[in-house]
């Protein structure tokens, strides 16, 4: 299988290369693409690979294209490549809400994929959220979801991670930094209640994505979803404080039992889990599940997952695997 990764030099793209190696994805030839040419800029299976400027012609030589190069690259090329018969998984937000395009989280709604050749990867905060919400929906229905996120700096890409390191160094040494930053404010020893840009109602793009994508993936178009998304000075893995109202009366015990058998999720009956605990893994952890005082329909939980892996790279590779399986079944029929 000829496999291309667009954005191979970025935080998600580099993680995709690692996940392809780990999962033994059938890569016979790898293509690494980014915004410009660079010699031996990435490694795959221990070998250096040249990085090539992204364009339709060279990408059309591949069977599977995994996009992690931002909205522009995906918008220009994603659908065109899928229309030309390539299997495309896309980490950008470009196609997630497009009518007729399925938005699939493999352990939540794989049935929705059908024979799609273009599979958007949902927003990283949304993926870990819906993994925790699915078993709750299945057991007791969902009426309302409120979320406060604590999102790692890697979620804003490699330049933001580098900025965090520079700010930490400057705080230690008393040095000064360039004013230009990829984040809306200083991040070291700080928190920033803004992820993305604001709309006319005062919501930021991340909050809008959580609303729309959660409804689409859970197939609950009227679900009440509200969030405040916050960037915190953590390098990897997002955390979420989640408040749910169920349709039917239930108990923390019943919900815990459902979470315990949800693929992709590990429920901790006791204790806590932090971003550092889950870094580098593909499991979403749920802890601190409890009923609100005196209620049988209001519950709180703490959800933590690695944004670069389950929130992006691993999900992209798993979507490519699912599309490949569907295509092979189609050819065999
Ligand atoms: N970080 C996360 O946790 C996360 C989670 C879910 C989804 N995503 C999405 O994944 C994508 C990549 O994010 P990231 O965090 O990996 O960002 P990043 O670290 O800033 O990396 C961006 C990558 O895209 C490449 N690129 C930029 N413009 C391009 C263009 N016009 N054509 C082709 N490649 C281009 C860059 O190449 P150069 O090195 O040449 O500049 C780099 O390889 C974004 O769409 C982001 O929204 C990120």
Task: Please give a quick description of this structure.
With 333 residues, this protein is α/β, with parallel strands linked by helices. It folds into two domains: 2-121 and 312-332, Rossmann fold, CATH 3.40.50.720; 126-307, Dihydrodipicolinate Reductase, domain 2 (2-Layer Sandwich). Helix content is 34%, strand content 23%.
User: Which ligands accompany this protein?
Assistant: NADP nicotinamide-adenine-dinucleotide phosphate
CATH superfamily of the largest domain: Dihydrodipicolinate Reductase, domain 2
Low-confidence stretches: none
> What is the helical fraction, as a range of percent?
25-40%
For the sheet with most strands, the description reads: 7 strands, mixed
CATH architecture of the largest domain: 2-Layer Sandwich
For the residues shown, what is the average pLDDT?
Answer: 97
How many domains, as an integer?
2
Helical segment count: 9
Secondary-structure-derived class: alpha/beta
* Rg for CA atoms: 20 Å
The order of strands across the largest sheet is 3-4-2-1-5-6-7
Query: What is the CATH fold-level name of the largest domain?
Result: Dihydrodipicolinate Reductase, domain 2
Shape: globular
Termini distance?
A: 20 Å
Strand content: 15-25%
The CATH class of the largest domain, by name, is Alpha Beta
Order of helices and strands: EHEEEHEHEEHEHHEEHEHEEH
Number of DSSP E strands:
13
């Amino acid at each position: 299988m000829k496999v291309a990764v667009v954005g191979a030099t970025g935080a998600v793209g580099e993680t995709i290369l690692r996940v392809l190696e780990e999962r033994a994805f059938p890569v016979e030839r790898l293509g690494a693409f980014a915004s410009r040419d660079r010699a031996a800029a990435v490694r795959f299976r221990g070998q250096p690979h040249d990085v090539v400027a992204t364009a339709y012609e060279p990408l059309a030589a591949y069977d599977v294209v995994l996009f992690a190069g931002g909205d522009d690259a995906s918008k220009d090329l994603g659908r065109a490549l899928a229309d030309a018969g390539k299997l495309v998984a896309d980490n950008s937000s470009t196609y997630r809400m497009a009518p007729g395009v399925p938005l699939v989280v493999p352990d939540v709604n794989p049935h929705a994929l059908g024979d799609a050749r273009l599979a958007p990867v949902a927003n990283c905060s949304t993926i870990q959220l819906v993994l925790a919400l699915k078993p709750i929906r299945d057991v007791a229905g969902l009426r309302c979801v409120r979320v406060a996120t604590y999102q790692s700096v890697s979620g804003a890409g490699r330049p933001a991670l580098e900025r965090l390191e520079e700010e930490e160094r400057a705080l230690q040494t008393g040095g000064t930094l360039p004013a230009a930053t990829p984040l809306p404010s200083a991040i070291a020893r700080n928190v920033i209640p803004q992820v993305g840009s604001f709309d006319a109602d005062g919501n930021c793009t991340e909050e809008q994505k959580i609303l729309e994508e959660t409804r689409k993936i859970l197939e609950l178009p009227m679900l009440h979803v509200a969030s405040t998304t916050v960037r915190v000075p953590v390098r990897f893995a997002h955390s979420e404080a989640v408040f749910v109202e169920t349709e039917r009366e239930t108990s923390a015990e019943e919900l815990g039992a459902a979470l315990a058998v949800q693929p992709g999720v590990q429920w901790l009956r006791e204790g806590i889990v932090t971003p550092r605990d889950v870094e580098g893994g593909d499991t979403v952890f749920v802890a601190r599940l409890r009923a609100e005082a005196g209620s049988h329909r209001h519950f709180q939980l703490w959800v933590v997952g690695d944004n670069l892996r389950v929130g992006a790279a691993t999900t992209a590779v798993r979507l490519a695997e699912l599309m490949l399986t569907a295509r092979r079944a189609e050819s065999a029929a």
